Amino acid sequence: FLEDGVKGIIVDGHGAGSPTGKQTEALKGAIAQGVPVVATTRTGSGRVIQTIRRREAGIIPGDNFYAQKARIL
User: Which of 27, 31, 36, 48 has its CA 20 to 30 A from that of 4?
Assistant: First the structure.
C-alpha cells in the first residue's frame, strides 16, 4: 500500500479494534513514513480508546466511528 501512495490506513479490528502483533509492527512502519493509522472496531457498538500500546505505536483511536466514517473524516 505504501508503494502505491496510500494516504492513510484504517484498521477495522475485532473487539476493541486492536491489531495483532505482526500487524502493529507493519503499521509502525507506515506511521514512520508519515501515513496516519486509525484503529476502529467492526463490532456493533463500542469505542476504540487511547491505550498505552496505541500511543507508543502512534495509532490513532477511532473512538465510536465505523471504518467507513473514519475513512471519510
Answer: 48
pLDDT in tens, 31-49: 999 999 999 988 877 889 9
CA 8 to chain centre: 9
Cell triple for residue 21? 502483533
State the pTM of this model: 0.85
The contacts of residue 34 (CB under 8 Å, 6+ apart) are: none
Of 51, 73, 56, 1, the residue nearest 13 (C-alpha): 51
Q: Are 56 and 23 in contact (CB under 8 A)?
A: no
CB 54 within 8 A of CB 26: no
